[in-house]
Amino acid sequence: MESEVDGILVAAHELKAPLAVLRQLALNLPEMEQSGERMRSEMVSVSERAIKQVNDLSKIRRLEDGLFEMEPVAVRAVCDEVTKELAYLFSYNRRDLFIKYSNRSKLVTANRDLLYSVVYNFLLNAMHYSGEGTRAELIVRDFKDKVKVVIRDYGPALPMDVWREMKRGFVAKPTSIAMRPGSSGLGLYIASKFSRYMNAEVGAVRHRDGTSFYVELPASKQASLFV
Q1: 3-class secondary structure, 27
Q2: What is the secondary structure of 144-213 as a DSSP string?
Q3: How does the average pLDDT of the chain come out, rounded?
Q4: Which of the four pLDDT bands, split at 50, 70 and 90, describes residue 226?
Q5: Quick one: pLDDT band at residue 225, thresholds 50, 70, 90?
Q6: C-beta neighbour count of 37 within 10 angstroms
Q7: Is the separation of the CB atoms in 108 and 221 below 8 Å?
Q8: Is residue 32 classed as helix, strand or coil in its secondary structure?
Q9: Does residue 79 carry a pLDDT above 70?
Q10: Is the dihedral of CA 183, 150, 137, 74 positive or negative?
Q11: H or E segment at 214?
Q12: What average pLDDT does this structure show over 67-88?
């Protein structure tokens, strides 16, 4: 397993440089007509999302060193940051995003950076696999003594083997997802790795018209000025 992760990290390192070059080239292109400008914006956006996942992969090996401290984190603030970053992508692809916060427990015990990546990857999946003109949903609510973040899409059904892995709370490795073209399952792999580190539970619910991915985080009792 260690050699497999090392291989993934080597591939991630090799990918990061050309992605950074692509982003810089796109930024340096001269001003274009409206259609060309949309293409340039999409090139920058794609390269930035890929670089973000490469950076997440690089963090996986560092999890073993315990460098990511756990602390009280304002879960709504993290979700707000993620949705703000992905707002352009949803708009560009003509997807709507419905957001509902009903949690009374405002703080969770987590690592802010890792939680951001979990929500980001789940929400990015929802954007990709909801059809044009449909919506994705981000719901944060209390669940027993935890806070549950649910991301719902209305895309193709999640295959049973991937659902079983999510049900047991861990995706062992990135795999292709049938009926969800363009996905390596990389986002689910990253989310499950980071969630396990934070003692959070991940899972998925299969619907007749899509899938809900969720992460359950321990509620923090510690007061904070940043809620």
Answers
A1: helix
A2: TTEEEEEEEE-SSPPPHHHHHHHHTT---S----TTSTT--SHHHHHHHHHHHHTT-EEEEEEETTEEEE
A3: 80
A4: very low
A5: very low
A6: 12
A7: no
A8: coil
A9: yes
A10: negative
A11: strand 210-218
A12: 94
Mean pLDDT of 6-17: 55
Is residue 3 scored above 60 in pLDDT?
A: no
Q: Which two tokens stand for residue 150?
A: 């649910």
Query: What's the pLDDT at 20?
Result: 65
pLDDT score at 101: 97
Q: How many alpha carbons lie under 13 Å from residue 83 in its C-beta half-sphere?
A: 19
The answer to whether 107 touches 219, Cβ cutoff 8 Å, is yes
Backbone φ and ψ for 111, nearest 5 degrees, come out as -105, 125
Q: Of 127, 191, 184, give the one whose Cα is nearest residue 153.
A: 127
Block residue for tokens 């490795």: 173
Quote helix, strand, coil % in the chain, to nearest 5.
Answer: 50, 20, 30
Contacts of 217 (CB under 8 A, 6+ apart): 75, 108, 109, 110, 115, 146, 147, 148, 149, 198, 200
Return the C-alpha torsion angle 82, 51, 205, 175, nearest 10.
Answer: 180
Kindly tell me if the per-residue pLDDT of 28 is higher than 80.
no
* Percentage of residues of the chain with pLDDT beyond 70: 70
Q: Which residues of 82-113 are buried (b: 16+ CB within 10 A; e: fewer)?
A: bbebbeebbeeeebebeeeeebebbbbbbbbe
Question: Is pLDDT at 2 greater than 60 in this prediction?
Answer: no
116 and 82 in contact (C-beta within 8 Å)? yes
Number of H helices, E strands in the chain: 6, 7
Residue 110 to residue 116: CA distance in whole angstroms: 10
